[in-house]
Amino acid sequence: MNLDWIKVLAVGTGGFVGAAGRYLLSLFTQSQFPDSSFPYGTALVNLLGCLLIGFLAGLFEMKSWVNPEFRLFIFVGILGGFTTFSTFSHETFLLWENSKLLLSFLNLGLQVVLGLFFVWLGYQVVRLF
């Protein structure tokens, strides 16, 4: 296996930016709902990430931006570090496990359905220009 260290650095640097941004935004959002069991912070991060990936993928496609290092930095690094499906899954499981079935299903529906909608919306915004 031949590693391109520039690409590895692009992903790693972007991952740091995305993960730090995710942590800060999620922490802030969740602090606005201190008495709630619902994972508002993760929901916001995942939905915003869906909107951003739709918008940026549409923009990259429309503008034919193909610089592989830049694409890796944005999509795999920043957005990969920013969104987290594993945390979403774990939090949904914990809601279910703690007999908060309605919140569990609300979390599933909100993030999956609205996430797909926001990806579509991001593409549509780019197509307006």
TrEMBL record:
It comes from Gracilimonas sediminicola. It catalyses: fluoride(in) = fluoride(out). GO terms for molecular function: fluoride channel activity; metal ion binding. InterPro entries: FluC. The keyword Cell membrane applies. The chain crosses the membrane at residues 6-25, 37-60, 72-89, 101-123. The gene is crcB. One of its GO terms (cellular component) is plasma membrane. This is Fluoride-specific ion channel FluC. Pfam families: CRCB.
